[in-house]
Amino acid sequence: MKSTGWKFEGDQGVFTLRHPELHNYLYFPLVNEAGMMSAITPNLHGEMTSSHNTFLLSPVSVEDLHNSKSARNFWVHIDGHGAWSVSGNSAKQNANRFMHQEEESQLEAGFLWHKLKRMNGEAGLQTEVTSFVPVTDDQIELMKVTLTNVGRQTLKLTPTAAVPLYGRSADDLRDHRHVTSLLHRIYVHREGVEVQPVLSFDERGHRINRVSYSVLGAEGDGSAPIGYFPVLEEYIGEGGALDWPEAVIANKPAYAQAGDSMEGYEALGGLRFAEAQLRPGESKAYVMAMVIAKDRADTERLSETYLSEKRFDELLAQNEAYWNEKLNTVSFQTGDPHQDLWMKWVTLQPILRRLYGNSFLPYHDYGRGGRGWRDLWQDCLALMVMEPAEVRYLLLNNYAGVRIDGSNATIIGTKPGEFVADRNNIPRVWMDHGAWPFMTTLLYIDQSGDMDFLKQPQTYFRDVFVKRCQEKDAGWLPEHGNRLLTVGGEVYEGTVLEHMLLQNLVPFFNVGEHNNIKLEGADWNDGLDLAPDRGESVAFTAFYASNLMQLGDLLLTWQDTEGVEHLEIAEEMAVLLDSVTAPVSYEDVQGKLNLLDSYYESVKVSVTGNKRKFSVADVVQDLKLKADRLVQHLRSKEWITSREGYSWFNGYYNNDGARVEGDHPLGVRMTLTGQVFAVMGGIADDEQVGHITKSVDRYLKDPNIGYRLNSNFGEIQQNLGRAFGFAFGHKENGAMFSHMSVMYANALYKRGFVQEGCEVLRSIYDLSQDFELSRMYPGIPEYINEKGRGMYPYLTGSASWLLLTMLTEVFGVKGNRGHLRLEPKLRSSQFDADGHAAVTTGFAGKQLEIVYGNPNRLDYGSYAIQSVTLNGEKIQLRSQEPGAVELDRSMLSALSGSERQLIHVGLA
């Protein structure tokens, strides 16, 4: 039997996939705000954890999903037919699959639940396994197994649930795997099996452990199991395995009873239920709960709360309502309903990134939890739309990670604003890190109009590393804490504006020999990590140039709207505003570095705590001067042309100080990153943008995988980065890297190259939803490899950028210093048959439905805004242009009621 790919059912994003077990590497996330993080596959494999050190199921990478036998399982021994797994996860069923004797099976999934249906045609037994993580305060995953007799004979069944209890840190998977099992204390309860290791053996040391792990279960009516298999080796038997366990295959009676305890073995949540007689048409349900608790499990409470079919169904309905309400905050209606539903799954992804960080899903088997610095800011782009109430708090806390030298903490805690020193004392600075906070904050201010946010005070991060991690401060000790102090020993605070100025002024002076900003440890592309001495990132020099321009514009708005004439910054920072204090030549690389080094020395240990006042006008002039200098430099020095006559921006210099892009004996070398920020930030003029699109199409566009991150350099680049050790067409070496592709589309839309931007977005969608190639569930992957397979699904910053691009550029719904600007850039194909396209989103504390009416289905560039109504009434506009209008924030804020407000925009 051949799967035909997933398909949507209904209009809520639910999708189905026949025979999902025929595809490797598939998994689905199940998660809640309490910290339970699960992944589940079509054969109920995956993982279940609340942190790097607390895994209930064994931690897994993608290859384990089809090679390991350790998984959730539920068996039925059918009288006259033998043992059978409801997940298809038995040695016999796996063998039959390759003998073309597949069972009928189907996956069905929605927000955020997972259902597996399977048919045992020989016995006439149909099963459903539904799994989800409830939206409660417990770290728990629930599973309901429903058995239905669809045959003509009464079935005699013996059910057994079997979930291996790993119960320890991911560090113990190989390191002391057996020794750590000796720490296990296993307790058998009426409700199930619990294991609580007495100690934790991991990088934190040999500590007393309090965390417990349980597998609890009951029949649908709440009846408890009749026996238990708490020890793994006794369950599988000598010569047995988890996919062919002796206890089930031989239908052995359970040997353990409630009240038993044992220690020193690998544990199993093995629950034997009473023998059941299923008449034709009859069903029977079983409910399991997998629990991670901070201490011994309160099994009685958990049983009452979760272990019945009635409670399971109630919690499942609550779970569906919770996620649907959250995701309905933003939704799109275009001429392609299938793509609109696909976008709902993309909308989920930034929330998943907030909850999982960059770990705890099988492809994301690196890291130990939490998020990186860049993630903190880019995820907020989408959260401003999805969960706006928390954004101001998150942004302000994030600024506490900035160092006074312009770099930032790289180890992020689990709580907002929690930063810790580098775990292994290995310093690394990503040169792009200073660019993202301003971009995100500017979006927040445009959405909210909250100019007062610039005045908010915040501390600075401090650890042993100084001078952008070039040196260590021998006098700093961990007991000093992680906050910058004044010479008087007090915690120093600067405004958010001071933090933003610092992060963008320091890089301006931190240049290489070609007067572009140094690459340091890497930029956005972590794989460009081998050019710390002479490497330069021209790409992000363009980003910082754009930031400096926009910072100046923001200060002018602050001055005009708030009447602010002066600002204060740390007196040591005054040298960075050199045109106001002591000008240096921007052509003099060494002079810029000398100025920067003098600044580093002045803040190496502490700051005075004194502030220096500057006029806003002087600061704006300084920022504009720097920005203009960078733009002129990039346009004159980094614009290159190939022998074929194609032109674009060089993006990098390597550790030999050589230009990276352009003609080369092994083929033309080009990066997409080098073009994106030059286009997005206005560094490229309109003519140059046209040339760039042609060059990208010539050297980077591939009809099979989309827009590659770079062309084939043809050799390892030990003077640039590890990325070029990857096979070409994979990950950071020439794959379709969704993040940069979406940003490229965003940049094109910003510059009015709508047809080109639309083509980029369409290619990403087409590739991602083509299951026969991408082999992934709905959503956008981190990248698409040379074969067209979608890699690293769910946890990717590209989802935030895609959501933002669809909302603010395609539909043109954006803020402008707090006011609502509508500037649609919809193509004719994006309107439905009646000429409508709509978006639902929040703005000014109101839920808005914005409908664009285009009865003639004109294409972008052929229509203009003719009328705007609010709830059917014509309104006074703040401003109007042929392609855009602006609505005053106060008018929207004054609307009464919590119901959705309808804005209709007529196009003709």
Give a structural overview.
Strand 5 and strand 6 (54-55) form a beta hairpin. The radius of gyration is 29 Å and the shape is globular. Among the domains are: 13-327, Beta-galactosidase, Chain A, domain 5, CATH 2.70.98; 640-797, Glycosyltransferase (Alpha/alpha barrel), CATH 1.50.10; 811-907, Sandwich (Maltose phosphorylase, domain 3), CATH 2.60.420.10. It is an alpha+beta fold and 908 residues long. The longest helix has 25 residues, at 538-562. The strands form 14 sheets. The protein has an eleven-stranded antiparallel β-sheet, with helices on one face. Keywords: Glycosyltransferase, Transferase. Residues 626-812 form the Glycosyl hydrolase 94 catalytic domain. One of its GO terms (molecular function) is glycosyltransferase activity. One of its GO terms (biological process) is carbohydrate metabolic process.
Summed up:
The chain is an alpha+beta fold. The longest helix has 25 residues, at 538-562.
Oligomeric state of this protein: single chain
Strand content: 15-25%
Mean pLDDT: 95
CATH class of the domain at 13-327: Mainly Beta
Q: Within the largest sheet, what's the order of strands?
A: 1-2-9-10-11-12-23-18-15-14-20
Poorly predicted runs of 5 or more residues: none
Span from first to last CA? Answer: 51 Å
The beta-strand count equals 50
Over all CA atoms, what is the radius of gyration? Answer: 29 Å
Shape: globular
Domain Glycosyl hydrolase 94 supersandwich: 105-307
Keywords: Glycosyltransferase, Transferase
Domain Glycosyl hydrolase 94 catalytic: 626-812
Pfam family, one: GH94_b-supersand
